[in-house]
Design goal:
The complex is a heterodimer of chains A (366) and B (534). Chain A has 366 residues and is of the alpha+beta class. Chain A is built from 8 helices and 20 strands. In chain A, helix 3 crosses helix 4. Chain A is elongated. The radius of gyration of chain B is 24 Å and the shape is globular. The chains are: A alpha+beta (366), B mainly alpha (534).
Amino acid sequence: MHLEIEKACKSFGALKALDGVSLAVPRGSFLTLLGPSGCGKTTLLRSIAGLHSLDSGDIRVDGNGLGAGGPKAVMVFQDYALFPHMSVFGNVSYGLKLRRMGPEAIAKKVDDVLGYSGIRGLEARLPSQLSGGQQQRVALARALVMEPEVLLLDEPLSNLDAKLRLGIRSELKRIQKDLGVTTVYVTHDQGEALALSDVVAVMNHGRLIQMGSPRDIYFHPADEFVADFIGTANFLDALVLEAGGGRLTVSFLGKPRTLEAGQSTCRVGESVTLCVRPESLKILERESPSSVSGAVVESMFEGNHVRYWIDVGGTTLIADDHEIGREVRIGSRVSVDIVPDGLHLIAKKTPREDGSRTAVEGTIHG
Amino acid sequence: MKKPGEPGFLFLTVALLGALVLFVLYPTLRVMAYPALRDYRTILADPRYSKALLNSLVMLGLSTVSATLVGFVFAFALTRRDLPMRRFFSLISLLPLFSPPFVVAFGYLMMFGKNGLVTHGIFGLRVSILGWTGLWLSQTVSFFPVATVAIRNILETIPANLDHAAKNLGASRVRRFMTITLPLASSGILGAALLVAILVLADFGNPVMIAGDFTVLATEAWLRIQGWADVRGAAVLCILLLLPSLVIFVFQRLWAKNRSFVTVGGKASSLEPEPTPTAGKAFLVSFCSLVAVLVLLVYAALLLGSLVNGWGYDWTPTLRWIRELSVQWGELGRSLLFSLFAGLISAVVGMTTAFLVHEKKVPMAKAVDVVAMLPAALPGIFIGMGYSIAFNRPPIDLYGTALIIVLSLSAWNLSTAYQTGLESLKQISPSLNEAAANLGAGTLRILRDISLPLLAGPFLSAFTVGFIRSITTLSVIVFLATASNTVATFTIMNFVNDGFYGKAAALSVTLLAVTFLAVGITRLTFGKKQGSPA
C-alpha cells in the first residue's frame, strides 16, 4: 500500500477530531474523505500534510514516516492560499526555490505544469488578476510542480460556481490519472465524491464509518448514516420471514421480497432496516403482483426527473420518476414497485413498537 | 510547523524579548519603584497637588466630552456623501493629527491671549484665554480628529440599506437617526471617547502653554523637577497620572473587543444612502465651518506670527524670525533624524513582535502582548520620566545622548506599530503560512517571503504614525532633553514660555513643513510599491 494511516488520533481540547482512523490505499488511488463538517476529514488531511501532528498513530507513505527530506504530501487549500504579492510564476516556483533548484530547471518545470494545468501565458499575472477558475488551477499547479508523493485537496472546488465546478472536476480527474499521483480529496459533496473517487472513505465524529468504491458506498451503505449522507434513501423496517442460503425474505410493506443477506446473520422473526434509493422505486400505471399502492402527497419537478412523495399505508416513500413525460397529480393513487436488486439490508434492528418508519431525505445538493 | 533548530529565529526571539523587558518594562517599573511611601504622603498632603489631580480629572471630563462630540458631528458630516465642502472638512479634520498638539494652544494664545490678535488687536480687549477655558478649547481642537477617525470608521460600517429598511417600515428621519444610527454607532462613540480620554489625560503640551496657573498632573510633574529637582515627587505625580490612564486603557481594550455586533452582515451595501435634508446640511456645514475656522486660526496665527516683528505690539512684517532659524537647524535636524529612527525602530520591533505573538511562536505570548501594548497606556511624561530615571547613570548611562531620545520615542510608539501589525496579520489568511510551510518553508522563511511583503503597507503606515508622533511630541522628551540632544518641540516650548512668539512661530511652521515633507516623500517613494496585491 502506498499511503497508510494507522490508528490516527487527534484531539483539540475535549473534541476528538480523529478517533482511531486506519486506512490504506495503493499508489495512484483517488481517495475521497467524505463526511459532514466536523467529522474529522479536514483534520486527517491536514495531518497528512504535516500541518499538525497526531496525538498518536502513524501516517506512512511507501512505508516511511512523513517529515524529514522535504514535503511528500503537498496540499491545495480550500481558499487556494495563493500568495497575493507573488505572480503566478512566483507562486508556482516558490516550493522549487525552497528546494534550491536552479533557475533554468525551475523555469522548465513551471512551464510544464502550467501547460497541462491549462494556464500557460498567465505567468506574470498576480492572483488578484485571475478568475476563480484560474486561481484554482494555479493552486493545483503550485502543488503538482513539487511532484508530490501524495496530493492533498481540501474542498478545492467549493469556491467555484456550479458550472465551472463540473468542468474543473473532470479536468482534475484527467490530470490525476495522467500523473498517477496518489490523491486525497476532502469534500462534503457526495456528488463529487462519487464522480471522482476510486475509493470513498465516509467519516463521522472522527471515525471511519465505511470505505469502499463509490458503487459500494452508494448501493451497500454500511449503516443509516452513510445511506442518508450519500444521496437520498428510503429507510424501512421489515420483518424477516425466511432466512438461509445467503438470502433473506422479508415483508416489505406487506409484500414478501427476497434480497441478498450479505454477511448478516438474521433470523426469522427479527426486524431489520432496509434501504431503497428513490431511483430504485418504479411508479406503475397498473398494479402488479409485487407492487404496493399509495397516494401521491407531494411532487417536485427537478429537470431530469420528477420526485414524488407517496403515502403507502402511513409510510412515505420517496420515488424518482425519470419518465417525465407523464405527470402524476397530487392526490392520485399509484402503484409502486422496486427494481430488481433495489432493496438493501443495512443493519439488523431490534424490533420496535410501531414497526414502520417514514423515509428520511438525505443531504442532496449540487 | 514549528521546526526545532532554527537558530536565527531563536536569536530573534531572545533579542526581542530582551529589548521589550529592558526598554519598556524596566523604565516603567523603575518609576513605580522610585518613590517611597513617605513621598506619596508628602505629595498627597500638599493641596497644590490635590488641586492638580482635581484639575486633571475636570479637564478629562470636559475635553473628552467636547472633543468626542465635535468628533462625532464631524464624522457624521464626513460620511454624508452629498455634503458640500466635504473634502475640505475632511482635510481640516486631519490637519491637527499632523501637528504637535501644543501648537493649537500656542495658536490660541496668539489669537486670544492678552496680546492676542483677535482679543486685543481687533477688539482692543485686555482679556486672555489663558487658563482652563483656553486649555479646554485647545484640547477639544487638538483631539477631536482622533474621535472623528474612530467614529467615521464605525459609521461607515453601518450599511445604508439599514436606513432604507427602516424608512421602508415607516420610520421618520429623526427616528431613524435615534433608533438605527445612534445605537449602532454608540459603542464606537464610547470607544472613541476612551481614546480621546487617554490623550487628554496625558496631554502636556497644551497645559504647559495655555493653562497658566491652572496646573494639571503632567505639568506639575514637570514643574516639580524644573523647580525643585524633586524626582521622587515627580515620580509620584507620574504614577498618579498613570493609574487613571491604565484604567481607561484597559476598559478601552475590553470595549474594542466586544463591539462586534456592528459588523453583522458583512455584505457591502450597494444602495446609495439617503440624501441629507437641507436643514441637516445647513447645520452640519455651519458647525463644521465653525470648527474649521477654529482649526485654521491656529495655522494662521503661526504663519502670521513668524512674519511680524513683535506679536501684539509691532505688526510690521519681517523675515527676521525666518532668517534667525538658522540657529535652530540643529534642533530641526535632530527632530527629523530622531523621529525617522524612532518610527523605523518602533515599526520593525512592533511588527516583528506582532508576528511572533500572532504565530504563537514566542513563549508567554500573553505576557509579551501586555508588554507590547503597555506604552499605549503610558502618558508621554511617564515614559520620559522612566527613561530619565532608568538610563541616566551606569550601568546604562545615556544621559544627554541621541540614543535616549530615539529609544524613548521608539518605546512610546511601539504599541501603535504592534497593534497595526496584529490587525494586519489577522487579515492575512492563515492558510498562506500553512501553504508556505507545506511547501517546505521554515518560520523565518515564512516571515521573509510571506508575512513581511504582505505587511509592507501596514509597516509604512506604522512607520508614518510613529514618525509623526515622535516629531510632534513634547511630553516624552521634556525630561530627556539637554543642550546636546534637544529637539525642536522643546525649543518651541522654551520660546513660548520666554515670550519669543516670533521665533516660536517660525520654528513651529518649519517643523510642520518638515513633517509634511517627510511624510509626503515617504509616501511617494515607498507608497507605490505596495497596494497592487489584493
